[in-house]
Design goal:
alpha/beta; Rossmann fold; six-stranded parallel β-sheet; three-stranded parallel β-sheet; globular; binds NADPH dihydro-nicotinamide-adenine-dinucleotide phosphate
């Protein structure tokens, strides 16, 4: 595609979140409050203070307030030990009133994030990082998948961007974003290259991307000249400079050459929150569906209809 033919389009995470909220989450809320006479409860645990966590929390609380969800935030002091945090989570694992547990990262450096995510009960692991869920998404089996990665896939599908056969380049290999995004894209039959801090030179790989996912945490790392014309770019990064939020991608710099690009804020962030809500509702429903396989499959399909939101026939009562 030549430069002149490219019509850049914004990947609008807020628009997606609004549609998914109105057409998927809210109708489900109405149905199951009727059936189960209960609403799902999310516990969010924060240890210490972090500006990115605070901004995510604010966005999340605002979104969840529109839903049939009870959300409680537990703030623990910076000096909380790993043992104390594990004991806190263990109590919530056994609390029948809690359907989802989210431990906000980054955690203080004296707490091992892997140990913490591995301690969350599989059925309440709305972040999709406990060993059973990681095994499931790595094998492309249906289960709870990290919300940010689901959000990236949802945005691509919402905008009906073809994935199969495309070359996707993921910059970042964390368990919370880079790796699950890679697996989701592989499941969609993309060819995926994963880059990280030792990839040299980065632009050699980013230039090959039909679809570029940036999940690094470095402001405006991806600039003009690093992307081919007509590429699709999803920016996951959340960085702060002089109190201003910005992504890993220089949006203004790339706008004229890409075919689709997501802004920060207003792109991946709202989609992540939306997928977190989706994971919570799904976790709650899977609990009630018990071992009814047909119902489980139907539920998973319903929540994952990102391109035909709300249009698919629905089979659950
Ligand atoms: P991590 O710090 O866990 O991972 C960052 C990854 O980027 C690592 O794999 C690292 O490589 C790689 N990296 C670092 N520097 C470079 C570089 N110069 N070139 C190429 N790769 C590099 O971060 P997260 O995955 O948790 O988060 C990434 C970003 O996404 C952050 O800005 C975070 O705030 C944001 N985020 C946004 C969310 C949203 O809802 N939009 C949700 C979660 C996170 P290596 O492995 O070699 O160290």
């Amino acid at each position: 595609m030549s430069l002149n033919e490219v019509k850049p389009k914004k990947i609008d995470g807020r628009l997606f979140a609004q549609e998914y909220l109105n057409k998927v989450l809210k109708p489900r809320c109405e149905t199951f409050t009727e059936i189960y006479k209960k609403v799902p409860k999310l516990s969010t645990i924060l240890v210490g203070e972090n500006p990115a966590s605070e901004s995510y929390l604010k966005l999340k609380e605002k979104f969840f307030a529109k839903l049939c969800v009870e959300s409680e935030v537990f703030r623990l002091p910076e000096e909380t030990t790993e043992e104390e945090l594990l004991a806190f989570i263990n109590k919530q694992n056994h609390d029948n009133q809690i359907d989802g547990i989210l431990v906000q990262v980054p955690l203080p450096s004296h707490i091992d994030e892997d140990t913490i995510s591995e301690s969350i009960a599989l059925s309440k692991d709305v972040e999709g990082l406990s060993p059973g869920n990681v095994h499931a998404w790595a094998k492309a089996l249906p289960n709870l998948v990290p919300a940010t990665a689901l959000g990236v896939l949802a945005l691509l599908k919402f905008y009906k961007i073809p994935i199969e056969g495309k070359h996707a380049v993921v910059v970042g290999r964390s368990m919370i974003v880079g790796k699950p995004v890679t697996h989701l894209l592989l499941k969609e039959n993309a060819t995926v290259t994963v880059c990280h801090s030792r990839t040299k030179p980065l632009e050699k790989y980013t230039k090959q991307a039909d679809i570029l996912i940036a999940a690094v945490g470095q402001p405006h790392l991806i600039k003009k000249g690093m992307i081919k014309d007509g590429a699709i770019v999803v920016d996951v990064g959340i960085n702060f400079e002089d109190g201003k939020m910005m992504g890993d991608v220089d949006y203004d710099d790339l706008l004229e050459t890409v075919s689709y690009i997501s802004p920060v804020p207003g792109g991946s962030g709202p989609a992540t929150v939306c997928m977190l809500a989706s994971n919570l509702l799904l976790a709650f429903e899977l609990k009630w569906a018990k071992k009814n396989e047909e119902k489980l499959e139907c539920l998973r399909d319903y929540y994952a209809n990102y391109d035909t939101i709300g249009e698919t026939g629905f089979c659950i009562e």
